[in-house]
Amino acid sequence: MDLPCSSYILICPMSTGTTLAMFADDSKCYKCIESIQFDIIQNDLNNLFRWSVIKEMGFQPSKCKNLRISRKRFSPDHSYSLDGNSLQVVSSVKDLGVMVTKDLTWSDHIRYVTAKSSRMLGFIKRNCAGIINKDALKRLYISLVHSHFCPWPQDLAPQTPMLITEVQKVQRRAIRFICKNNELSYKDRLVSLNLLSINY
Hints:
Layout: H1 5-11, E1 18-23, E2 26-31, H2 38-54, E3 65-67, E4 81-82, E5 85-86, E6 88-90, E7 92-95, E8 98-101, H3 107-127, H4 134-144, H5 161-179, H6 186-193
Parallel strand pairs: 3-6
Antiparallel strand pairs: 1-2, 4-5, 7-8
């Protein structure tokens, strides 16, 4: 980006109440719709596109999505376009590593993180099957798998037993692989490795 934010706003003016957030090569244009204000957002998108053409920093319409966030049962439908291409309406989108859904629940994000952790655990099990040193395996687990669960603040924590179970399954498989002892219970394995359950 070759312009400071103040110059950017002057060259690409947004209507009152519309916010443009930028981070690296990601941009988000959003506005709280309290009435029929669809044309305002479309005009902002048009201004944004014209600015990108002037600065030779064009958007890729195929990567641009339309996410409507609402807790109402019925939200007004309206399609937006960028450079004549209709923006795809999605129910969730990944924003800086976090899955944001249209109803602001965290189920999709938890499933995304769980699947990512499970894939990483599979990678460790395939490539470290010959390692018997528990400390080495524990360090691998904590740094490559468990680290995906650690950043969750309270509002991101799984709120349903089903989601907690999905997260626990990953740790159960990892602990079983590290200890290589089927006689111990899950709790005893955690104690032997000085680890806490995901619930804590």
